[in-house]
Each structure stands twice: as structure tokens, then as C-alpha cells.
Amino acid sequence: MKKTLLLTAALLPALAACTVAGGAEDGRTKVVVGYQSKTINTVTAGTLLRSLGYFEKILGTKYQVVWQDYESGAPITAEMIAGKIDIGSMGDYPLLINGSRAQAQGGDAATQLVSITGYNLKGALNGVVVANGSKARTLRDLKGRAVSASVGSAGHGTLVQALKRIGLDAGAVRTENQQPSVGASSLQSGGVAGLAQFVAWPGQLVQAGQARLLYDGGALDVPTFHGVVVRKKFAEDGPDVLDAFLKAQIQATTYLHEHPVEAAESVAKETGLSPETVYLYNGRNGISTFDVTIKPAQRAAFEQDVPFLKSIGVLDEPLDVPSFFNDAHLRKAYGTAYDTDLARTSNGAALPGDPALASEIWFEGAETTEAVADPVALLKAVRGKRVRAVYVPDALTGTRWFADHSVWLKDGGAFRPFATRENADAYASAHPGTEPVTYAEAVERA
Fold first, then answer.
1. What's the number of domains the chain is made of?
2. Whether residue 205 is found in the same domain as residue 309
3. In terms of CB atoms within 10 Å, which end of the chain has fewer, N or C?
4. In a domain, 347, yes or no
5. Does the pLDDT at position 316 exceed 90?
6. Which residues cross the membrane (predicted)?
């Protein structure tokens, strides 16, 4: 994001009057934003944006912004259709359901996708985790067992598509429709054999030592993203309010890129998630790439998801995708750099060097992180040191993961990390002579 996009309320024209969710008791116009605090792929339109106060600063004193926090996108959609939420953020599958149901309702209920928060072109924001003591090595090992997922969510979609990829239908596992926090508890109690969820649940449970990653969504190689959806009537009646929101989102994205550690600490404080997990996704070379522009690849993946959601019975009505996507408001808020940045897919907070190898260390007591060239350099640098977190890219899929929770192979003179045993097994089968080692052994032998 260009620094020239940073704006102050003083530079903006007076905002036009608009019809929004309702009026505040003190006479101000109320704008209601639905967000998911723990879905940290949406922080630039939710948790971080709220804490920074950019939206309120741009709007000024005539408006009251009401932030409503939810665990998933479904209740945000219900409230938007009822006219009780003006702007919402959610993942790609919930966005599809949002657009479909709103279009079916018609009239003032219609919604449009107006910007992206964060994305991963390979799908690594979603994953399936199992208990540490589980004997499962692949998804196939969960056949006939119970798996917790929020039906219709991006995490659920990854599970079903991954099962299909290995020749199994959705009925191969018993899907328990649960909110993420309920599913996490079910996994701990042994009520389910696996948990299929979206950012940040897989990373949080693994980093806390409560689970291990069984399936890396990056292996699916299907783009996944989260975005901002708005009631169409709200956008038409108050275009300047939406313009203010999008400009504030752009500011928050710039802040996240320029202050990744501070942003992670802030989001962690607001959500109760660990800073180390937030940074895994939102930091430099994070699993999530934050970019508000609506990429062609995202639109294409979105269209391909329509038949899938219909097949599992959560999309009853067809969706006119072209009319649902609307980047006109974003183009206006973004300025002349939009088309240039639209073509870029690199992380705005990239580490130096080759992204397929670049690794990172968060030393204990340090106020910032330290970049290293590759996983072997990381192993050498941490020996005898106290660390908060260590991050490496999976040698097969490129998915960034915790080095101390990765599966390691010694391959000749190199040490290669993998987010899952399945990825490590796939690499080993193609590279005879590799030797499995623990993280501690890799540190000692590097």
C-alpha cells in the first residue's frame, strides 16, 4: 500500500447524510459493523481497525460506530438481511451464502462484496487438526469418525474438497456442526477425532500444544480469502460512509504491513489469542496476505465454489456472482495505484530473500523479530537461545508454520520442515534417503 493513501479526517469532504442501521440515542447516525475478532484474517476490517480507531476518526462526531463481534459469518449474514448490520467481514464460503440469501430476499436485503481483507492463494488459511495422541497421518485415517466443523465455513469446505481429492465423499466422516470454540473443546475431550476450521484456530491449538496439524490447506492449492460485504442500499444511500470505511481499511492494512509485531500484539490483546499465533498468520511472510484489492483469481475461485456449496446443501439459491462483486467503491477510495497493486500477489510485509526459504525467529525479550535466510540458518541461530516463536515455510507447500511443531527431515546436508506428516511423507517418497529427525535433533545437528 502506498503511504500516500494515508488520509486524515481533515482531508475528506463532508460526509453526505445516509440511511443506515438506525440512529443512536444521542442523535448521531449509527453505523453497525459485524466482525469476527478471532478470525484474524479479517483484522483490517475488524479487530485491528476497531482498536486503531481510523473509521471513527474519518467519520467524525456525527456518527456512532457500533462493532458487533461474532464467531462466524452466518449470524452476520442473518443480521444484514434483517437490516441490522450495515458492513460485515467473513470468509469466502460465508460470503457466497451471504450473497445468495440476500439476492433471494431481494429489495433492501441485497449485499455486495466490496473489498478483501486477507487471502492465501493456496488455501493454507484453513486446516484440520487432531489431538496430539492421534494415530492419524492423513485425512483418510479419519474415515468413519466424527470431525467438528462449522458447516458452510471455509474450514468445512477445505475438509470436504480435500476428502474428494482422495476419492472420498463428504459422508466419509461424521461432520459435527459446531462453532470453532465448541469444536476445540470437543477435540480436547475426545468427542471428535478432528477439527476442520479456519484461521486462527488450527495455529492457536497447535501453538498451545493442544493439537497437531493433520491436513495443511495449502496442499489443496485452491485460493481462500476473507472480504468485506455491505448492504447495497446502505452503500447507495451513504456512499461517503462506505468510502470512509474503505479508506480506514486501507490505513489499517498499511499499519499492519509497517508494524507487524505491534499489530499482532494489539490483536492478541483484544482477542485473547497468543501473539505468536497471530503473528504466524498476520506477520511478515504470514500465511495471510493482506491486500484490499479484489483479485481475478479470487473471483474465479469464488465462482468455482458455487456448485460445491450447492452440493452440500448450504446454498439453496443461485448467486449472480458478477453483480455481487463490486470494486467501484474500492477503486474510488484507493486511487490511481489500484490497477498496479491489483496485479501484485506478494506479501506486503515480506521477509527478505526467497519466500520459499525465508524463516523468522522471535527471541525471548526482543521487541521485534529476526529474519534468517532459510530453515537451516534458523536452526543454527536458535541453538542455546530462548525463543518465543520460530517460523519456517513448509518445504512442500510453502505454508508458514511453527518450526518447533513441524515435522523435520534430514535430506543430505539440509534439514527440511513440513507442517504435517502427510507433507513430509510425500516429500520423502520423492526423495529416497531422507531421514526423519525431531526439531531438537535438527537444532543440535544443523
1. 3
2. no
3. C
4. no
5. no
6. none
